[in-house]
Design goal:
It comes from Marinobacter panjinensis. This is Amino acid ABC transporter substrate-binding protein. It is built from 8 helices and 11 strands. By secondary structure, it is of the alpha/beta class. It has 2 domains: about 120 residues, D-Maltodextrin-Binding Protein, domain 2 (3-Layer(aba) Sandwich); about 90 residues, 3-Layer(aba) Sandwich (D-Maltodextrin-Binding Protein, domain 2). The two termini are about 25 Å apart. The N terminus is likely disordered.
Amino acid sequence: MATMTIHREASRVLFACVCLMAFAPAWGEAIRVAVPPLANLLERDNSGVYQRLVGRALEPLDYSVEQVFYPYRRSFKAFEQGRVDCIFSLGAILKKRLGAERIVQSYPLGKFVFYVFMPSGEAPIESVDELNDRVVGGIIGHEVYLRPVLGENHGLEQVRSEKQAIRMLELGRIDAFIAAMPDIRPFLDRLSYSPEHPLLQNFDRLNCHNTERNRDFIRDLSAELKKLKEAGGYREEAGDLYMPF
């Protein structure tokens, strides 16, 4: 356990260095990456699982990467307006909004699955129709994923974090809430849900504007990410948050 902790800390420090050091790659300036908040997966201090995975994959590569942390919607806008080269997550939304031909995507960083959660001990929700006339919470920013699934008749009471959603659920301020695995996994002992009835599932990736430099970057990064996964690095970094794929 001590060895794993040291290794993870070293990876974290290394990625911070990769983000800040000028390697003077052939393409010149650093690749700017927007980082939206995803609990335990993408963090302001670069400690998220996905950030550590990318950090390890960058070790043998000659790219300079700069992370810029934004709230969910601002990170999307920064990418859409071309103020950053790449963005973690939101791939399906970007392809729909901008067109698949304008995006290049990395090898998956992880799998995510959305479910409806209820207080522990209550019967789980098995269909969207059961949400009628209920106050349903959702993490700010997740509505971009959930709106097509829920339709126009199901609004979401927006909350800042999984922890806040659980507190509101236990206080009766919301009747149910929608969150993603693996983000919510640390709180599962306080919740009820139906594993057989996911709302949607997809993969998180690093997504970049479709330019020659970014295509080279994504190609090289993806090759290293695939090697890392096959060597067990994904499971090692994610621990209990690992979702097999």
